[in-house]
Amino acid sequence: MQVKRVLAAVCCCCCLAGGAVQASEEFHDVKTPVVGAEFPVEEPAVKPNIQERTKAILDEYNDPKRPKTHHGVELGHVYIPKGTPLMLALQEPISSKTSKEGKAFKLKNLEDVVVNDVVVIPAGTTCVGKVLKGRGNRGFGMGGKLELSIAAIKTLNGVTVPLNGYIKGRGKKSSTWFAPWWISAFLKGKELNYKEGQLFRVTVSRNTDLKVTGDELGDAMGYPADGKPSIYVKPME
User: Fold this and answer.
1) How far is CA 7 from CA 1, 16, 32, 117, in A?
2) Which of 1, 42, 85, 191 is the most buried (most CB within 10 A)?
3) What pLDDT was estimated at residue 20?
4) Range of lowest pLDDT (37-41, 137-141, 152-156, 211-215)
């Protein structure tokens, strides 16, 4: 008789937990930006030989054909400074319940990026992100989990701009302190859901050479700023 009562309690909790998953899916406020971070640095499986790496760097530096650069920008060229912010809007929903590793998703830039009074990345420019890890909610109150990569966006002249676009989020964990472990195993946390229109604030991860001089910038982009706020940079000297 006691065994039947235990089994009935477990079944009841399973049903409640299953129903709670559907009812508890929470969406982030699309008006509140999720802030991207630098991508985590992974240690190489095999450490490079320091002597060989140093020699390669010196050979590259002393190569007479190598363009002279400063902070990654060829001398005389204009650039997008490191730390320049972009606001991106998600163009499709993403959920920890259904999004698996490798899934691609689209985003749209919401504001013109203007350098020296020339639009280099217009509002409406699209880029592609990727799901690095996706996991649905689990027992013991564990919420769903997503890790996203928004790695780059392109300028009007085709230059790839690297972004600090590492997003890591987790659905809210459900409290299980009140339940025995054999019941907690069936109690799930919330899924992590980003709706279409969710904002992501990212920044340019390094100075990005626009491959043109200041005099060539307008012709290369062909998109005057018309008085919009501009980033003013001096060509690298």
Assistant:
1) 10, 14, 44, 71
2) 191
3) 32
4) 137-141
pLDDT (mean) for 66-78? 83
Confidence of residue 19 (pLDDT cuts 50, 70, 90): very low
The candidate with the shortest Cα–Cα distance to 146, out of 107, 201, 86, 97, is 97
Comparing CA positions, the residue from 122, 133, 156 lying closest to residue 40 is 133
Give, in order, the Cα–Cα distances in Å from 130 to each of 25, 37, 97, 197, 212.
Answer: 22, 15, 16, 17, 30
Calculate the alpha carbon distances from 189 to 15, 18, 23, 31, 143 in Å.
15, 11, 11, 24, 4
Dist. CA 93–CA 91, nearest whole Å: 7
**Beta 26-27 vs 166-170: how paired, if at all?**
unpaired
Distance CA 223, CA 58 (A): 40
Token pair recorded at residue 190: 């919330």
The CA distance from 233 to 211, in Å, is 14
User: In whole angstroms, how far apart are CA 96 and each of 76, 132, 142, 223?
Assistant: 46, 11, 12, 39
